[in-house]
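Researcher: For the annotation table, I need structure tokens for AEC family transporter. Please keep the output clean. Sequence:
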Amino acid sequence: MADIISLLLPFFGLILIGYIAAKATKQPAEALGWLNSFIIYAALPALFFKLVSRTPIEELTRADFIVTDIAATYAVFVLLFAIGRFVRGNALDDCTIQSFAGAYGNIGYMGPGLALLALGEGAAVPVALIICFENALHFIVAPALMAAAGDDKRSPGRLAADIARKVALHPFILSTAAGFAVAALHLEQPLAFQRLVDYLAQAAAPCALFAMGVTLALRPLKRVPAEIGYIVPAKLILHPIVVFLALTAVSGFEPVWIQAAVLLASLPTATNVFVIGQQYGVWQERASATILITTVLSVASVSLWLIAIRSGLLPLQLFP
């Protein structure tokens, strides 16, 4: 337990420092712009490039891992969508944001730092694959469902072109693709370039966590959604369980790959869920509340998942 506390204290401590700094200085939300730009366009892409480019190409082509992880994540998404649509009778656009709130974890900002800290370098490849492919699919699913709901007024052709451009040109996707190319071609990277990438990658986790704390402080809890009663357990408990069951059922994966996937699935709701809601004017305050509540509760839930992983309580072969 002491190991878990010493591991999580600096991690969640950075989020708390960002939260306190934002409350104390009362800076406007716009003041966070350049830090977010640095994180999204420099630090995290450098980290993803580093993780992927220095990995043997055969480890990067595990389509079975990618498909299984995404299928598990979207099983949770579909379940929440069905509950919102057919049980609660919510509108299609509301159901979309609610489902993302329960299935889209904060894998970009929180995932790499926590997984590498807790599981070591062996978690680098699965983390990079999950972040790259899950984000790419989320970027496709969100506008497609919003278009179906009538909230996106673009023509089908324009919508498809915009989605393709957003996916293809996103810094996370571009950096991961560049890493794939370097790994596949066995390119030797100049020492000066490697050092630059290392410097940027080292800044990714602390800057991202600090920015996340600031973001939480700037989005106060105003409206708690009724759906929080099932979205929170779906995100913090059900999602990692479904990912674990799916990966162990398929089998053939290294233990650290399963552990990394479960850990990323246990993370709280991504701040991008609020961004999507804000973009379409749907479920904004409630998305913000969900992010804050799941983040606070994840201090306990992520700790329990880490205990299960590190103590061996999480069996890695349920289906012999």
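Researcher: And a one-line annotation?
Model: Residues 51-190+226-319 form one domain.
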